Amino acid sequence: xxxxxxxxxxxxxxxxxxxxxxxxxxxxDAADWLYTHWYLLALAIAVFWSVGEWVVRRLAAKASAERxxxxxxxxxxxxxxxxxxxxxxxxxxxASTAMPWWAPRRAKAVQIRLRADGSAPLRYRVEGPAGGExxxxxxxxxxxxxxxxARPIVDEPRTHTVRAEFILRGKLISPLRVxxxxxxxxxxxxxxxADLRAELSDLAEIRLDIQRAPxxxxxxxxxxxxxxxxxxxxxxxxxxARWLRQxxxxxxxxxxxxxxxxxxxxxxxxNSRRLVMPPLPRRVEPAEALGxxxxxxxxxxxxLLVMCASNTEGRAEARLAxxxxxxxxxxxxxxxxxxxxxxxPWRFGADHWPTRHGxxxxxxxxxxxxxxxxxxxxxxxxGLLKPPTTxxxxxxxxxxxxxxxxxxxxxxxxxxxxxxxxxxxxVATYAEETLFEVGVGKAGGGKTERALAQAIGWAxxxxxxxxxxxxxxxxxxxxxxxxxxxxxxxxxxxxxxxxGPNPRISSWNPLAMHQGQTAHEVVEAIADGYASALxxxxxxxxxxxxxxxxxxxxxxxxxxxxxxxxxxxDQATIFHVRALLTDAGxxxxxxxxxxxxLDEETRSWWKSLFPTxxxxxxxxxxxxxxxxxxxxxxxxxxGQPVGVYNIRAAMDSKMIVWVCPGGNGPTDRLLxxxxxxxxxxxxxxxxxxxxxxxxxxxxxxxxxxxxxxxxPETIAAMFEDLRKYRCHIHGMTQLLAxxxxxxxxxxxxxxxxxxxxxGSKSAVAPITAEWGDNPSPDRVATMDQFEHYVSMNxxxxxxxxxxxxxxxxxxxxxxxxxxxEVPALERAAQGNAGALPLDQLTDRAAQQLGRVAxxxxxxxxxxxxxxxxxxxxxxxx
Length: 877
Description:
alpha+beta, nine-stranded antiparallel β-sheet, 30 helices, 43% helix, 16% strand
């Protein structure tokens, strides 16, 4: 028994050894077989990887189909702080995980899209998981940002397209450069796409995908960085030890060292070599080795893709180069660089095999598969986490400000805009949105030339206007460009300057009733014009206003009776006020004739109160009329019974009326006040026409200082009320501060377009103050001649202020110049205005008092009472 036991044990050991040997042999054989048939293993791995990738892609595509998009639009006051931008970045990182549990990591991302295609300078969109919509819709930016649900963008195929992916290069653990918020960090990107041309189908789009950093990937990256740092430190220590030994050996072998040993007391010591202690490796500090990856807080992975396209060869490539240069602004020890490699003139990257397919898949599906180097902290991305701010200069595109087209009735010329690429184009606003316009600037700065260009363009487009110019210089400047056969029937010239030996003058009877005016509106317009020019009101001149109103009421009633009798040539004029107040016979005949047309209060006033008035009470009313009568031109213009001038008819028939009052004296101011009040009355009378049938009409007032000196309240009321009646005022003045306060406040408050040329700082300061002093008065004051800063309303939002060059008629409308046809235009304009020789009109005005007296005698109820003119009236006649 005892002898058999060892043999059994030995046999068991031998068996176990044989099994181990057999296992090792099997493993060796299997390894040999796999080595021989390696392709089968590779095929199995490839199949497994392909199936896994296919499943992941299908799941990622399904998750991406449920994404949503928001478009963020900033206003001109958007000025966020760094803290607000950082909080927005935290929101984006958090929203990237709002996906189903089964969604692959590549689908868990939020994408920022910066897009320029000609519709806007730079559209800012955020796309992400549908579950993160509520989180992304509420931004920390406040009311200066509008968040809209965005529709998918479908791009038409372009002929030439280039693609690029940007990765971080340099010292990857170092942060990107800290870019200040003023100027806007997006400014280089905006400048890179500023010369984009929509008509060439130019397109530039930047997509920044943000993905929360996975913990395992971060730990693996840190381990890799720490290992690399340790290896680097060991290499540095070994290198230092090697140099130290070399230095020690060199010293001991030197002649000086050997002489020192010979002279020393212990010469034997020189035979032994010095013991050199190698330096120990320096301790690697994690913060130094890991850099921005040392902390977990707010660390994300990013993917930066860029695509540029155009239908013109070379433009897409040039755009990509501009964007590449723009990203250099963010570069420091770490920088953005295009992924790929270059061989001579060729670059191999996202546009070439094998990476192009992956780029397009990520681009189309919104998948985020960033390179392992693209780790950033949220504060490094602050410049890209918000739309353009108030510190960003945005280019003005055709979609923002339309290009002027000659003959287009929907557009109103504004000036010449020079784009970032140096191209110039005529820009315009939409006529329906240009309700009131104000132009300020020094004399000779170009404000009148700009207004003339706008008026001429509007006239050729079929629009009606009245151009009031006290100095008449605008008429000869405009005539070569208006001398067209299609325009001549619509042009009328009211020239009261009396030029030449026997000038031709038009006519206007403010009291005339043959055109169907409303009696009380005519009385009110004349009385208000009178009071405006003479600074009357109910507190300073109540009796004068009462006398004038009562006289006008009677004369208007007389004219109503004459028109109903079919005798409009027998109508009274404003000069008959004197006869009505001072000639008892004329007054009795007039009151008797129109007694049935007057209300009881008016008849009672004439019967009871008028006789109690002293004679000197009429002087304040009659003196201004006497001055009008003393001027032959105004006497002829206002002394005709049936005037041709009818501004309401001009509005409705799209006439082009040029009015040149002829001066700035007291008499001229009174006439201007009457014309201005009649314009206000005529515009308000359009309430009898349905709003959709009111024809747009544009009064242009040159030298507002002169005009408002005559009728301040009237001009202010125009800027306040006439929009309702589609009558849109354009005013020009040298000094805004010289205007009456009521006019200045009304026109600045309601101006759709505000423009200024160069001038003194004190003169332009009120305009730049409306723009928040951007540009500053200093900048505006030093502009060149014919340069303007203009702010405009387009599609309900303000554009500008932007710098425009004023249009010069000889350049802009050179093709429309007809200088040889100017004499024909002059004749047509005077003919349309019913202009007659001054002496003829003067004779007719002198006879008009007798005609009215005869009419009253014939239509008085007594029928036989003769009216005798006083001696004063005969002399006045």
